[in-house]
Amino acid sequence: MALQDIKDRIAKACEEAGRAAESVTLIAVSKVQPDARVEAVLEEGHRCFGENRVQEAQGKWPGFRERFDGVDLHLIGPLQSNKTRVAMELFDSIHTVDRPKIAATIARLSDELGRCPELFIQVNTGEEEQKAGCLPGEVDGFIAECRMLSLPVKGLMCIPPVEEEPSLHFALLAKMAERNGLDGLSMGMSADFERAIALGATHIRVGSAIFGERVPG
Predict the structure, then answer these.
(1) CA nearest 50: which of 174, 165, 206?
(2) Which of 57, 137, 151, 174 has its CB 3.0 to 4.6 Å from that of 146, i.e. a possible disulfide?
(3) In sequence order, which residues have a C-beta less than 8 Å from that of residue 109 and are 6 or more positions away?
(4) By C-alpha distance, which of 131, 130, 137, 106 is closest to 120?
(5) Nearest one of 81, 101, 92 to 149, comparing CA atoms
(6) What does the alpha-carbon distance between residue 45 and residue 15 come to, in Å, rounded to a whole number?
(7) What is the pTM of this model?
(8) Spatial separation of the C-alpha atoms in residues 174 and 187, rounded to whole Å
C-alpha cells in the first residue's frame, strides 16, 4: 500500500539520521482528494491529515470525525482573517501563521473559545514575492510578538522554492527554530521528505505519494 510505503521510507530515513521513527509526524495531505480516497486511508488506521482550504475541510471532516476517532487535522494552506474562527474550531494545528494581524486575531479568539490550536509560523525562506510567509529577517521579532500574546507556537514551517535545493531551506529553518527555542519543524513533502528528516523535520506533508494525483475540484 502507498501509505505503508511512505511509513517504511520515513522509518528508514529516521534510522539513517539516528532518530526514532516516532519523532516524525506524517501529515497525509488530503486537499482536493475524493472522499473515497481519504476514507480508504482512514480505514488503514491513519489519523493525521492536512488541508489547504478551511471551507473544503469544513465540508469534509465533521462527517469523518463522527465515524473515526482520533482525527488530528492540520491547516497547511493560507489563513484568511475572516476564516480564523472556523479554522480554530476545526483544526488541531495551524501551520501558516505569518503576520501580526493573524496572530492578534488568533489571540483574541483563543480567549473567546477557551482553546487554541498548536501553531507553526510559516517562513518564506526563499523570499518569494508570490508566496506567503514571514520573511527570514522578521522571524525572531514575530516569534517574540506571538509569545507576548501567549500563543502556543510549536515551531516553524516552510515550502522551499521549486527550483532550489530544498536542503538549504530546511537547514535555514532548523537554525531559526533552534535559536528561538522551538522544536517543531514542518518541512518536507512527497519529493524531498527524506532530506527534511535528515535535517530535523518533525512534521512532513505528503499528499500525492499516498493518495495518487490530485483530482481538481
Answers:
(1) 206
(2) 151
(3) 84, 85, 88, 116
(4) 106
(5) 101
(6) 23
(7) 0.95
(8) 10
Task: Kindly state the cell numbers that stand for 79.
Answer: 489563513
pLDDT per position in the chain (217 positions), as tens?
699 999 999 999 999 999 999 999 999 999 989 999 999 999 999 999 999 999 999 999 999 999 999 999 999 999 999 999 999 999 999 999 999 999 999 999 999 999 999 999 999 999 999 999 999 999 999 999 999 999 999 999 999 999 999 999 999 999 999 999 999 999 999 999 999 999 999 999 999 899 987 665 5
| Residue indicated by cell numbers 500500500 | 1
Assigned C-alpha cell, 161: 522554492
The three-state secondary structure class of 115 is coil
In this structure, the number of other CB atoms found within 10 A of the CB of residue 63 comes to 11
166 Cβ neighbours under 8 A, 6+ residues apart: 160, 188, 192, 195, 196
pLDDT of residue 212: 83
For the 2-16+24-211 domain, the top CATH level (class) is: alpha beta
- Cβ-based burial of 214 (10 A; exposed 0-12, middle 13-18, buried ≥19): middle
Beta strand 153-157 with 118-122 is: parallel
